[in-house]
Amino acid sequence: MGDYMYKEIIIENLDEMKSFAEDIGKSIFPGFLLCLEGDLGAGKTTFTKYFGANMGIKDNINSPTFTILKIYEGDNILYHMDVYRLMGIGMDYELEEFIYGDGVCVIEWFRNIIESIPEEKLVIEIEIIDINRRLIKIEGIGKYEEIVEKISN
User: Fold this and answer.
1) Which candidate among 3, 39, 43, 61 keeps its CA 20 to 30 Å from the CA of 17?
2) Are 84 and 112 a contacting pair, CB within 8 Å?
3) pTM attached to this predicted model
4) Positive or negative torsion for Cα 63, 48, 3, 120
5) How many folded domains does the chain comprise?
6) Are the beta carbons of 33 and 122 closer than 8 angstroms?
7) CA distances in angstroms from 36 to 40, 67, 80, 124, listed in the order given
Protein backbone atom coordinates (compact mmCIF):
# COMPACT_ATOMS: atom_id res chain seq x y z
CA MET A 1 0.00 0.00 0.00
CA GLY A 2 2.34 2.75 1.20
CA ASP A 3 0.40 5.83 0.08
CA TYR A 4 -0.48 7.55 3.32
CA MET A 5 -0.66 11.14 4.58
CA TYR A 6 -1.32 12.38 8.12
CA LYS A 7 -1.86 15.85 9.58
CA GLU A 8 -3.07 17.42 12.80
CA ILE A 9 -4.90 20.73 12.90
CA ILE A 10 -6.56 22.76 15.62
CA ILE A 11 -10.11 23.95 15.06
CA GLU A 12 -10.86 26.98 17.23
CA ASN A 13 -14.65 27.28 16.79
CA LEU A 14 -17.71 26.23 14.77
CA ASP A 15 -16.85 28.58 11.90
CA GLU A 16 -13.50 26.84 11.49
CA MET A 17 -15.21 23.43 11.69
CA LYS A 18 -17.57 24.57 8.91
CA SER A 19 -14.63 25.73 6.74
CA PHE A 20 -12.79 22.47 7.40
CA ALA A 21 -15.86 20.40 6.41
CA GLU A 22 -16.27 22.50 3.25
CA ASP A 23 -12.59 21.99 2.36
CA ILE A 24 -13.03 18.22 2.67
CA GLY A 25 -16.28 18.45 0.70
CA LYS A 26 -14.50 20.00 -2.29
CA SER A 27 -12.70 16.72 -2.88
CA ILE A 28 -15.56 14.22 -2.88
CA PHE A 29 -16.08 11.73 -5.70
CA PRO A 30 -18.43 8.75 -6.26
CA GLY A 31 -17.64 6.11 -3.65
CA PHE A 32 -15.97 8.63 -1.30
CA LEU A 33 -15.43 7.06 2.13
CA LEU A 34 -15.01 9.22 5.21
CA CYS A 35 -14.51 7.55 8.58
CA LEU A 36 -15.08 9.57 11.76
CA GLU A 37 -13.88 8.88 15.28
CA GLY A 38 -14.18 10.94 18.42
CA ASP A 39 -15.77 10.90 21.85
CA LEU A 40 -19.44 11.67 22.35
CA GLY A 41 -19.88 15.40 21.88
CA ALA A 42 -16.59 15.86 20.01
CA GLY A 43 -18.35 17.11 16.89
CA LYS A 44 -18.71 14.15 14.50
CA THR A 45 -22.33 14.93 13.65
CA THR A 46 -21.66 18.69 13.58
CA PHE A 47 -18.89 18.06 11.06
CA THR A 48 -21.25 15.83 9.03
CA LYS A 49 -23.97 18.55 9.02
CA TYR A 50 -21.55 21.06 7.49
CA PHE A 51 -20.15 18.44 5.13
CA GLY A 52 -23.65 17.49 3.95
CA ALA A 53 -24.80 21.09 3.56
CA ASN A 54 -21.80 21.61 1.30
CA MET A 55 -23.14 18.71 -0.83
CA GLY A 56 -26.41 20.56 -1.30
CA ILE A 57 -28.33 18.54 1.29
CA LYS A 58 -31.21 20.61 2.64
CA ASP A 59 -32.47 18.08 5.22
CA ASN A 60 -31.46 18.39 8.84
CA ILE A 61 -28.65 15.88 9.32
CA ASN A 62 -28.70 14.27 12.74
CA SER A 63 -26.99 11.27 14.22
CA PRO A 64 -28.28 7.90 13.00
CA THR A 65 -27.38 6.26 16.33
CA PHE A 66 -30.59 4.24 16.54
CA THR A 67 -31.21 3.63 12.84
CA ILE A 68 -27.54 2.88 11.98
CA LEU A 69 -28.00 4.42 8.51
CA LYS A 70 -29.62 7.58 7.16
CA ILE A 71 -29.67 8.45 3.46
CA TYR A 72 -29.73 12.07 2.30
CA GLU A 73 -30.20 13.33 -1.25
CA GLY A 74 -28.19 16.35 -2.38
CA ASP A 75 -25.91 16.96 -5.35
CA ASN A 76 -24.67 13.48 -4.47
CA ILE A 77 -26.23 10.87 -2.24
CA LEU A 78 -24.92 10.83 1.34
CA TYR A 79 -24.96 7.65 3.39
CA HIS A 80 -24.50 8.66 7.02
CA MET A 81 -23.83 5.74 9.33
CA ASP A 82 -23.36 5.51 13.05
CA VAL A 83 -22.15 2.01 13.80
CA TYR A 84 -21.62 2.56 17.52
CA ARG A 85 -24.17 -0.15 18.34
CA LEU A 86 -22.64 -2.69 15.94
CA MET A 87 -19.55 -3.28 18.04
CA GLY A 88 -18.79 -6.98 17.99
CA ILE A 89 -21.83 -7.82 15.84
CA GLY A 90 -19.81 -8.03 12.67
CA MET A 91 -21.41 -7.33 9.35
CA ASP A 92 -24.84 -8.94 9.55
CA TYR A 93 -26.16 -5.50 8.90
CA GLU A 94 -25.64 -5.43 5.12
CA LEU A 95 -23.94 -2.06 4.99
CA GLU A 96 -21.40 -3.10 2.36
CA GLU A 97 -23.64 -2.07 -0.54
CA PHE A 98 -23.53 1.49 0.83
CA ILE A 99 -19.88 1.45 1.90
CA TYR A 100 -18.80 0.16 -1.51
CA GLY A 101 -21.48 2.07 -3.47
CA ASP A 102 -21.27 5.20 -5.60
CA GLY A 103 -22.57 7.56 -2.94
CA VAL A 104 -20.58 9.51 -0.39
CA CYS A 105 -20.32 7.52 2.81
CA VAL A 106 -19.65 8.98 6.27
CA ILE A 107 -19.23 6.40 9.03
CA GLU A 108 -19.14 7.41 12.70
CA TRP A 109 -17.42 4.93 15.07
CA PHE A 110 -16.02 3.11 12.00
CA ARG A 111 -13.58 1.02 14.04
CA ASN A 112 -16.55 -1.06 15.24
CA ILE A 113 -16.83 -2.52 11.71
CA ILE A 114 -13.22 -2.06 10.63
CA GLU A 115 -13.06 -5.51 9.00
CA SER A 116 -15.78 -4.42 6.54
CA ILE A 117 -14.16 -1.16 5.48
CA PRO A 118 -11.80 -0.72 2.51
CA GLU A 119 -8.17 0.09 3.19
CA GLU A 120 -8.38 3.27 1.08
CA LYS A 121 -10.28 5.89 3.04
CA LEU A 122 -10.16 9.27 4.72
CA VAL A 123 -10.08 9.06 8.52
CA ILE A 124 -10.87 12.08 10.67
CA GLU A 125 -10.50 11.82 14.43
CA ILE A 126 -11.91 14.69 16.48
CA GLU A 127 -10.57 15.23 20.00
CA ILE A 128 -12.03 17.70 22.50
CA ILE A 129 -9.47 20.25 23.73
CA ASP A 130 -11.97 22.49 25.51
CA ILE A 131 -15.54 23.73 25.05
CA ASN A 132 -14.88 25.23 21.61
CA ARG A 133 -11.52 23.90 20.44
CA ARG A 134 -10.89 20.56 18.76
CA LEU A 135 -7.78 18.69 17.68
CA ILE A 136 -8.39 17.15 14.26
CA LYS A 137 -6.24 14.20 13.22
CA ILE A 138 -6.70 13.56 9.53
CA GLU A 139 -5.32 10.57 7.71
CA GLY A 140 -5.60 9.85 4.00
CA ILE A 141 -4.87 6.39 2.71
CA GLY A 142 -4.36 5.66 -0.98
CA LYS A 143 -6.29 8.01 -3.29
CA TYR A 144 -7.29 10.09 -0.22
CA GLU A 145 -3.69 11.09 0.47
CA GLU A 146 -3.83 14.22 -1.70
CA ILE A 147 -6.93 15.49 0.13
CA VAL A 148 -4.90 15.60 3.34
CA GLU A 149 -2.00 17.28 1.55
CA LYS A 150 -4.34 20.12 0.47
CA ILE A 151 -5.65 20.79 3.99
CA SER A 152 -3.81 23.70 5.57
CA ASN A 153 -2.88 23.37 9.20
Assistant:
1) 3
2) yes
3) 0.92
4) positive
5) 1
6) yes
7) 12, 17, 11, 5
In a domain, 100, yes or no: yes
Domain containing residue 64: 12-135
Helix pair 44-54, 14-25: axis angle to 10 deg: 50
CA dist 107 and 13 (Å) reads 23
Classify residue 85: in a domain, yes or no. yes
> How confident is the model over 85-131, as pLDDT tens digits?
887 655 556 788 899 999 999 999 999 888 889 999 999 999 999 99
CA dihedral for 143, 145, 148, 149, sign (positive or negative):
negative
In a domain, 48, yes or no: yes
CB 76 within 8 Å of CB 98 = no
The domain spanning residue 71 has which CATH number? Answer: 3.40.50.300
Q: Which helix (H) or strand (E) holds 148?
A: helix 145-150
Domain assignment of residue 149, yes or no: no
